[in-house]
Amino acid sequence: MQPKKDVIIGETKGILKVQATSQAVAETILNISGDSKGTAISIGFASSFSTGSLTLIGYENQGIIETGQQKDALKGIASGGASAMAVASATATAIAIANDTASATAISSATAVAQAIADITVVGINNLGKIDTGEGKDIITGEASAFAVAETFTQSLALAFASTNNNGEATALANAVAAATAQATATTIGIRDGEFSLGSGDDIVNAIATGDGVNIGIRDAVVYGGKGDDSVNVVATGGGVNIGIQDVLIYGDQGNDTFNLQNGIGNILGGKGEDLLVLEGHFVDYKFYSTDLKFGVHITNTDNGTDLFISEVENFQFIGEPSITYAYTNLHIIG
Superkingdom, according to UniProt (predicted)? Predict the structure, then answer.
């Protein structure tokens, strides 16, 4: 009997909402008569600080997963958002009334401060152990997406009223200050941690991270390609910092492997076969260093944070010039 195809899917969604609200009220009313003098002072102060954090994981492995034969699939999807709202309201009222020859002074001051901080981390696949896909054309996909919204609302109102009858003197002073700050951050990681062993077959690893903050395709992981024409594909995109891989080791082993990594930090060892590395931008954006061509080449790009050590990878392409394929020797000689 034919072994069954394994399909493992985990999905998580969530929203983090953090709100800080502060309201300060100060009110002074002074009404005197005769030949007297009076001063009345009212001070109101209010502050509010609120913070929250949330981690969402689409699929988490804490042990060893072995999918065996057939075209197996493992997918982790996580999506979420962080919302931080700070609301501050300050109202100050000063009323001074002097009758006859009296002297009246009313002073009122109100200050309201509000601060809200929200932080969310979204991970497609969190691998605390080992995932071994065995034989077959297997697909591993980690997908994370997140948004971050920060909003502030302030309202300040100062009212001063002074009134005299006959020869009186009246002074009214009112001051209201409202300050609000809000910060929302989002980090997305397609695949995080652990060891991935792809075994035999033309296997595929997809890591997708999309969001408003820091987006990382693969972080702190080791990927062993094994036999077959394997491919590792990374997409990190959004309005913030986009990192293809971070502290990752990829070993293609046997086969014509493709590493579409965008950018990042790590070690890429192609192994046997005609392997291809694809990076963002253009060839001229990168610097290439090598003390021994047979050993490997160091590729850097300070603009996008790339710092890669490459060995046994025969071909290179850049997304900005997809029709051109550079050979390993071309990179060494030109760089």
Answer: Bacteria
